[in-house]
Amino acid sequence: MRLFTHELKAQQRLFWRSRELAFFTFMLPVLLFFLLGSTYGDDEIEGVRGADYLLAGMLGYGAVSTTFAGLAILLVIRREQGILKRLRATPLPASTYLTAVLASIVLVFALETVLMITIGRLAFDTDLPDRWLSLALTLLLGSVAFAALAVGLSGLVRSAEGSSAVVNAIYLPLSFISGAFFAPESFPGFLEAIANVLPLTYFIELVRDVMLHDRQLWEEPTAVAMVAAWGAVGLVAALRYFRWEPRER
Question: What is the pTM of this model?
Fold first, then answer.
């Protein structure tokens, strides 16, 4: 536990010292929420205020941006720079290191969530969630599932130079198709068909049900099962493909 706490603090320092990583994974979702909320926050979408609808969607986008895209790029870069290989030669257990990295990125997303909810309340008068426990469990479920997918994907990306392009090509279209920014009901039929198999679609659905429709997490077993199933896919991929040594050398 002492090693884990020490490594978690180190991971937090490394994250906030990296201005590019901190901006694109932490601040970008917050800025997009503020800009889009200023644009159509007073509109009505599916019977609720646009700002409330957007906040739930942007929490989904924040989860995939931080715990999926940010983590995957981070792991690939550290692997190709030889950092992960050198860590294996230290007394720090590999499981402790990975757990600290995952906990650090989940903590970043938690801070991002608090900031977006605060901005939504102060800037757009969004309603505060009533089901705090269900919301916390929902966000934890999604962040862990996306983190598992990130670890699995990091093993498939071959170079540090291409990591950003590969990850962005996956998570940005995923965010649009899953309805993070707009109501997915307005999409063409083929996009709706794609959205129906994406984990982010079900995660955003869970967040909106809890925040906007006052439902409990356990009242949505299908969506929970889909998010968990994708997390299991990520775990299997991580066990199969994750590497500690550089692939370019």
Answer: 0.92
What is the rounded CA–CA span in Å between residue 171 and residue 85? 27
Evaluate whether 64 touches 148 at the Cβ level (below 8 Å): no
Torsion angle, alpha carbons of 133, 218, 178, 190, to 10: -170
pLDDT tens-digit profile, the chain (249 residues): 788 999 999 999 988 888 887 888 888 899 999 999 888 878 888 888 889 999 999 999 999 999 999 999 999 999 999 999 998 888 888 889 999 999 999 999 999 999 999 999 999 999 888 889 999 999 999 999 999 999 999 999 988 888 888 998 999 999 989 988 877 777 788 888 888 899 999 999 999 999 998 888 888 899 999 999 999 999 999 999 999 988 755
So where are the chain's domains?
Answer: 2-241
Beta bridge partners of 45: 48
